[in-house]
């Protein structure tokens, strides 16, 4: 499941292996429950993901929107191969930073 | 990855089956009348669509196989290969195999057996004979593809006028419930990518909600794609054939006119400027043209509002476009799409779907249920009517009669739903004739007539096997080999005529061949041999013909694998009788044989004519009633010795219904004759009272009554009493034979 790690200057979120329509509801609840009292700088690590579908992509977009609306920063980092492929289909790769 | 396949499995199967049938029809037609462009086009499209669907759901064993078949068809289509009988046979075999594979994919675990695979291999190697260098070509093709990919960027830059017809802009606003139905747009993108090079994708993310409103099953993304491809726009539309309603799909060639683009923008009700900016990214329009397109629009708007001066508006528009384009250059997604997308299904407009007739598939169980309910309603209505009549309440009777009329109309339209044209069934026999005549070295043409005749679906389903049997017999025993035919001075090609038409409340199906006919002597000989009749019996021509329907009868000197094992014609007869139908045979030796099958239009509810004799009510199917006459004293005397009367100078055999069923009754003062007709024979039935038209819900009689002669079923009257439905065909036969014997 989703993992939180407080670093000096930011909070690091690590997404689980599977981010698909089946897990999205649970991930969403977890995020909402934990994210409000986090730092304003958030890094979301995508390196563990080996199953991602359109729902997952929408979840990432939705999370980013939510945080940006609150004036906080979210960076998606370390995409796995699967993440790269899926994001390429939607030409959304610019949302992910390869290294951080 | 079989994304979403489960949810549309059935649709895939049905569609594939329809297409394969179309393919078979096309091939057989081609064999009969030669190939034309339209035919090869439809065959090609059939295979092509199956390939597409299979590819989309990653059923590679179908996609790969159909791909090769498609290649062969393409060669035929482009006139580089001439079609001949052996190619047609090969293609028919391929069709069967694909049909089999579709079943594997949809009904079993989706893994083809070793047999299936080796069958694929055999057919592929047969196909490759006609395709010779196909494999090499394929390799070259894929090489070409790779090098094209490498050139991708170059192509982008050098997008000049002559390349524009190969580029399309695709705009997708897929239905928001697409994820819920188990599909993922990624699979469409993946599949589309296989059709050509998607060189520009813009994902519209503005409808994505805040995390708190995020719903995992709602699809919120918009897609604007530019693809460079060799396939036609129709084929691009086909990719989205499986999408549910509520999806908005637009595909434009890059050379679409400014007006077309403008019209489209208007239907989108989206922010035109950002869409145009996306179009310019894909190179469909030049960004300098955007003001031009928008100006056209602003003029329209201006005419509507009539407030803003043209020049001012123009400047404003140009400014805003500049802003957006700057935005674009930073390579972010287009942020300004208003969430005003109207989700309407535009599938109707796509060319591939446009020519399909609008019909829906309904599970036949649902229709059966509906018919049953209507049957109950008819009975209930009869009950209400009777009670109203008894109460002699004028108002009530009027209302009830109105309701009765409505019930009748509902009944008729419901029955209409079940009616199916028999033509499809006929077409299936073309294949059988083709295959069998080939096996037997005979030349046979199947002629069909009246394929648009409609018949109850249940009957059509059940009549299929008997018809096949008769046709097989005609091919095997009836039609002679070309050599014999020529020596007899006949056309070396035999003909089997299959026709259907309406005939006094029945459907007649006639199977006629111009073969050797029935050798009566031989039939008689065989019948005596098998102990069906004794050698002393003197039989009429018709009786001899009817011996063919006796159980255990076969005249074939050679028992082939096609027919002639002595099981058959009696079963055929039984099947037809179980549908309340009859079969007649007519043959003249050397000239051919003709089978006439008569079937009732429907099995469930009929218009009946209610009569009473003694205490019992009977129903006669109304269509069989010709006229009603009063039985006068004088005629009564006439009958006494003969059992027939003279009706307008022709003999009318009579049956006294009460006598026929051994009913006890008092002789009433007034009796009536009701004249009925079946298969061109008329007889009169003597009854006590004529009660008139009656909507009859046919209820089958139980097993005990199966042997009851002259009754085909029962129905329930308004009073709750049972009325028996007379089996007119049996009564007619009985009356005629009485007459013959008397």
Description:
The complex is a heterodimer of chains A (100) and B (742). Chain A is of the alpha/beta class. Chain A is 37% helix and 24% strand. In chain A, strands 1-2-4-6-7 form a five-stranded mixed β-sheet, with helices on one face. The longest helix of chain A has 16 residues. The mean pLDDT of chain A is 87. With 742 residues, chain B is of the alpha+beta class. In chain B, 49% of the residues lie in helices and 19% in strands. Chain B is built from 25 helices and 21 strands. Chain B has a five-stranded mixed β-sheet with strand order 6-8-9-11-10. In chain B, strands 19-12-13-21-20 form a five-stranded mixed β-sheet. A five-stranded mixed β-sheet of chain B has the order 14-17-18-16-15, with helices on both faces. In chain B, helix 1 runs antiparallel to helix 4, helix 3 runs antiparallel to helix 4 and helix 15 packs antiparallel against helix 16. The longest helix of chain B has 29 residues. Chain B is flat and about 105 Å long. Chain B starts with a helix and ends with a helix. About 13% of the residues of chain B have low confidence. Chains A and B meet through helix 1 and helix 2 of A and helix 8 and strand 2 of B.
Question: How would you describe this structure in keywords?
Answer:
heterodimer, A: 100 residues, alpha/beta, 5-stranded mixed beta sheet, two-stranded parallel sheet, 7 strands, globular, B: 742 residues, alpha+beta, 21 strands, 19% strand, flat
Order of helices and strands of chain A: EEEHEEHEHE
Q: Which runs of chain B of at least 5 residues are low in confidence (pLDDT < 50)? A: 134-164, 299-356, 557-566
Approximate strand percentage of chain A: 15-25%
Specify Rg of chain B, calculated over alpha carbons. Answer: 35 Å
